[in-house]
Amino acid sequence: MSAFGLLNINKPAGPTSHDIVAGVRRGTRVKKVGHAGTLDPMATGVLVVCLGAATRLSQYAMGSRKTYLARVRFGIETDTYDAGGIITAENDAPLGREAIEAALRELIAILADPEHHEMTTIVAVASDMQRKYPLCNVITVPCANDSRPAGQ
To answer: How do residues 11-44 score in pLDDT, each as one tens digit?
Structure first.
């Protein structure tokens, strides 16, 4: 009898979703293991891992409504455009509620429109058989921006 099912894993910061899947594959000795949506290495939270024939169910989990909780620090800019980078600029100007709400409305509109999705300098696209985001953390020159639309 082969394994079949879904695992609800609380992914810590650090490992990639692929790392978690590889660990489940090793631990269970099940060959067919996948996940229902990628979490960035810095992200923590629920990662649904599918085993065996349940991998066919991942499309339903990925298509379902999700809720995200984020901690944001305004007024800094980093060399990698994320919290893991080196701070390159700081601005301690106070932000009012109206300015924050206006910026959030603009961000939500951009995120909702697939035509506006552009990959940042740090993307998880293979480059010379290596992922770009770890490369950019190791080398001192910036990675080139990939101009393809997100998801391609």
So the answer is: 999 999 999 999 999 999 999 999 988 888 888 9
Q: What is the chain's alpha carbon radius of gyration, rounded to the nearest angstrom?
A: 18
Tokens 């800019």 — which residue?
77
Structure tokens at 148: 């393809």
CA angle 47, 51, 56 (to 5 degrees): 90
DSSP track, the chain: ----EEEEEEEPSSS-HHHHHHHHHHHHT-S-EEESS---TT--EEEEEEEGGGGGGHHHHHTS---------TTEEETTSSTTS-EEEE------HHHHHHHHHHHHHHHH-GGG-B--SS---EETTEEHHHHHHHSSSPPPPP-SBTT-
Q: Which residues are catalytic?
A: 40
Residue with tokens 């298509």: 63
Instruction: Provide the whole-model pTM.
Output: 0.59
d(CA 135, CA 58): 29
